[in-house]
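Quick one: structure for this chain?
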Amino acid sequence: MSKVLVTGGAGFIGSHLVDALVADGLPVVVLDNLSNGSLDNIKRNIGGKDFVFVQADLLHKNILFDVVRGCDVIWHLAANPEVRLSSMIPDVHFNQNIWATYNLLEAMRKDGHARVLCFASTSTVYGEASKIPTPEDYSPLEPISIYGASKLACEALISSYAHTYGFRAVIYRLANIVGSRSGHGIIYDFVSKLRNDQKMLEILGDGTQTKSYLHVSDCIEAMILGLKKSTGKVEVYNVGSEDKINVKSIADIVVEEMGLKDVSYYFTGGVQGGRGWLGDVKVMLLDITKLKSIGWRPKLDSASAIKKATRELIEEGNNRQDTQ
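Got it. Here's what it folds into:
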């Protein structure tokens, strides 16, 4: 790999990926509109000799063509990550996920230089899978959220462009990724709520939602290894832990890590049988046999990942308060 582009590189997962690529000595270009990302996430790299930051949106075609030019590998992580939003404002996911991906693919096609596109997809493309753990070749793919549908549409577009225009694609179907710099998700929500009220925690759904959680450090190692080991025209990898944990247990961990006592839980009851929101997949566990076969396995299980991420987010929150 020589020149690398990371879309969404100032975001949660993207910024951790950027850190790893820069540490490997690679020239990195980050494109981010900062709607979800933050310059604080990449401040350690800004000003570096081989680092360029471009604040722009993937919907801006003219800028995009210039940014893509000459990049050998493109990591496409830019997207609207909020699954709950999709049931209320579906056009956000159409624009920020599908249309943005199309624009990126068109820029790649016209430049003709990139050899590989690496795409951050999601476990939600499987919908409510009848096979748990769920392997990459599971079918039919029936997402139950607009977010999941938009990511599946992106996968299809990427596959068609790779086969038609001569580059390779590596697609990562991510479980729930947790860790420092995260600005959304269950741990972030719980920590924020408990900072406001240390006696009562609202929990969306019935608390039995059970899913796989992976720490972002494990995620980045999996993604980089997946690129290095992939050989197919379009390679798909599940990225997750080997176990799952329910929402009630996550709440218990967050309360313990925050050093709180006598916290009462208020379960909203949720929708459609205890889901946290419309489109919420109630049980998810990915089969990661394929990634393990090329030499990767997670260092942390779901509970350990939750504990580590909670400590990181608490520390980040404390640091923000100290600087205010």
